[in-house]
Amino acid sequence: MASPALLMRVVASAYAVAEKAATIVRNVMSAGDLGIVEKAGPNDLQTKADRLVQMSICASLARKFPKVTIIGEEELSTDDVTEELIEDGHCEEILKKPCPAQYTGIKEEEAGADAVLGRTIWGVLGIGAFGFQLTEAPAGKHIIVTTRSHSSTLVNECISALNPDTVIRVGGAGNKIIQLIEGKASAYVFASPGCKKWDTCAPEAILHAVGGKITDIRGNSFQYNKEVKHMNSAGVLATLRNYDYYASRIPNTVKQSLVP
């Protein structure tokens, strides 16, 4: 368990680094040269923004917390990171803001920050989550949010078993969690391997901070220690409310098809 003072520094740094990363993405987009390359194939692409953002995040956090283990999506070296990519100072301004009195005894895995859709959302279990207006989905409606580009027979079978009123298909694990916490969807359902720990880590902290729950399709909690495998092999099931309702309706045939 981290001390409150240490975790506050980590969260403040994560927030500042996320803001820096968002600026990098906007700069790449406005310049027009996305620098797209294939990694493992035509459906596994990497952009210049992907590369620069990871270099910025890893180098910035490593400079402030040299003993921390940082695992990123891209296989990149941080040895040649330029100073302009380093976030070094804004977190000190954040730390000057008043800290909520209930900020005690928080574990590292219960905090996260995520820059998405032009804003930075952050949360700590025991304090709450910020950067958005918490809203619940319409009562009595079963609105499923799922993958936009990685659908399959198994994914669709799982969704159909939930008898949804509406299915929303969007990209990004963080974006899907936003659909939950802003009341646009009731459950995030993805019955397939493909999502990785770096996709769900920060969104999970934010969802937990407002009372939500996220597991794999079989109901297993995700672990984020440095030895854990990166793939969420048994998919994702997340809700802001009524997790048990959706978990109880996942067909056994779907669960048996996904191995943690």
TrEMBL record:
SUPFAM superfamilies with a match to the protein in the record: Carbohydrate phosphatase (SSF56655)
Entry-linked Pfam families: Inositol_P (PF00459)
PROSITE patterns membership: IMP_2 (PS00630)
Catalytic EC class: hydrolase
EC numbers: 3.1.3.7
InterPro entries with a match to the protein in the record: CysQ/Inositol_MonoPase, Inositol_monophosphatase-like, Inositol_monophosphatase_CS
Gene3D superfamilies per the UniProt record, alphabetical: 3.40.190.80, Fructose-1,6-Bisphosphatase, subunit A, domain 1
Family membership: Belongs to the inositol monophosphatase superfamily.
Protein name: 3'(2'),5'-bisphosphate nucleotidase 1
Name of the gene: BPNT1
